[in-house]
Amino acid sequence: MTTVLTRRVTTEQDGDAVAVVRAARRTPRRRSALVVTGLAGALLAAFAARVLLGDYTITVPDFVRIVTGTDIPGATYILMESKLPRAVLALLAGVAFGAAGALFQTTLRNPLASPDIIGVSLGASATAVVAIALWGWQGLSVSAVAVVGAITVALVVRLVAGPHGGHRLVLVGIGLAAAMQSVIQYVFTRVDEYDAQLVLRWLTGSVNGVAWPTIRLLAVALAVLLPATWWLCRSLRASELGDDTAAGLGVSRTRGELLLLMGVVLVAVAVAAAGPIAFVSFLAGPIARALNGGRTTVLGAALTGALVVVSADYVADYLIPDTNLPVGVVTGAVGAPFLLWLLASGRTGRRAA
User: Fold this and answer.
1) Which domains does the chain have, with CATH numbers?
2) 83, 106, 111, 224: most buried, per Cβ within 10 A?
3) Using one digit for the tens of pLDDT, what is the confidence trace for 284-300?
4) Angle separating helix axes 212-232 and 298-318, nearest 10 degrees
């Protein structure tokens, strides 16, 4: 009888423990779902405001009619050639920058490990500016060479930093970023007036004046890269614990390197389409992580990046009357104080989430 009672008590205790574990797992999942849903709703509202509002207001019925093929004089041109392509490109580029920033910061366990900071974005810009100013290239060939430049800089940074990245990788990246900035400044002095505006786009980042074929190419690239990123992110929580701990949990170091490579490619294709929009990758990860209770969420970071770029483009277009600022000017104005605050507060370490 005593044995039966003991077994019953043990079973009840085990059931209580399982219930506690399940409840503990449900709480972060519920919060993550709420964060993603909230960010998606905010992004939808920002996208609608960017497309429908402004100097020329377009009603929702007119938007539907134009998109489905109806020609409304004036409104069709403004929507299809100005507002909608800018909003779509801002959304796609923001998703790529935000996801890449989260991958860099989580895998390297350092909030300063952003593609902006370690020279990946500047590598793409430098090669693009050289192609425009010195080689006379234009169009998709410039975008292609920008992708090559970003990947090349990332490989150089990784090789010089050695097998153990961390702060060393960030320092090497900052040094190489300074070198790329010097190349850009030198080449910019040799560009003619005709190419000056195009070169400026590669220095600050802009979603204005980009053709639909470029946007379609970016959309196709993300349709391939984002599912691959999602598949690799299954081991992200283990990777951010460190190489040794991740290896003990059965996650190879190769998977961490693949995550970094995926982040580089995401940044490269985004820069190739919209230029190096400053600080989006740097901002998106910490904001999404703070909303998610300190836990990394690549999807949340991607939505945050898109929200930042779409909102910043709206501000850039209408902040100063009769002046259309590049979106990179606005994100840079927001990101620079955030970087200074991060350094001043000493929050450059990385704790496991």
Assistant:
1) 34-344 (1.10.3470.10)
2) 106
3) 988 998 888 878 889 99
4) 150
